[in-house]
Design goal:
single chain; 208 residues; alpha+beta; Nuclear Transport Factor 2, Chain: A; 7 strands; rod-shaped
Length: 208
């Protein structure tokens, strides 16, 4: 009878060993499954950040990012694009119409009001009849993204090329940016509000 105790102890020891092994294997399976799930989620997240752009018949890969990371860059580009489209003029009615058409999608009624005033005063008609070309050079754009809507002030120069002269004017404008939905006509998803031209005085005139 006493001789059976060592066998019983061996059976209990073996059972504990098997149970411990099973527990370790189960824990290991859970850990592996958790790691696999984490890696799969990371892979999906990385895949979602990839953006493919079709340009000139070629597929290019870009990386998506949160809007807040690129907000100052996008905002400044929106402001620059608007001003370039609004102030770039040539003695061609089609060019003027196309540029102003693109610009007016990026601004509220304040920009439309300035456009209407220039149109009524015959400014665009004079550009065509006098063969005038107009360009702007942007020196800097001060942007405050601390408070919403975002205030900006643009510093630049306007160059007006006439048949006999080239006039350089100071260009100083201000406005506020409001976030709106992105679209084909408004890629950055901003709208310029309360836009005003603060200064547009002549700096110099050169003969041609």
């Amino acid at each position: 009878m006493w001789a059976m105790f060592p066998k019983t102890k061996n059976i209990e020891t073996s059972f504990r060993l098997i149970r411990a092994t099973c527990v370790i294997v189960i824990i290991g399976c859970f850990c592996f499954a958790g790691y696999a799930f984490y890696e799969a989620a990371e892979a999906v997240s990385r895949a979602q950040q990839r953006v493919y752009i079709l340009a000139s018949g070629k597929v290019l890969e870009a990386m998506a990012s949160d809007r807040k990371d690129n907000l100052p860059v996008e905002a400044r580009d929106h402001i620059a694009t608007y001003h370039k489209d609004f102030f770039t003029l040539d003695p061609d009615e089609k060019v003027i119409t196309e540029n102003l058409g693109k610009a007016l999608y990026l601004v509220d009624v304040s920009g439309k009001r300035i456009y209407e005033n220039l149109k009524e005063s015959g400014y665009y008609g004079n550009v065509i009849s006098a063969n005038i070309s107009q360009r702007i050079t942007i020196d800097s754009i001060a942007l405050n993204t601390t408070n919403y809507p975002f205030y900006f002030r643009l510093y630049g120069e306007e160059t007006i090329t006439r048949a006999t002269s080239i006039v350089t004017r100071e260009l100083l404008t201000e406005g506020w940016l409001r976030e709106v939905s992105r679209s084909d006509n408004n890629a950055h998803g901003f709208l310029i509000e309360r836009w005003a031209i603060l200064s547009n005085r002549d700096l110099k005139t050169e003969s041609r």
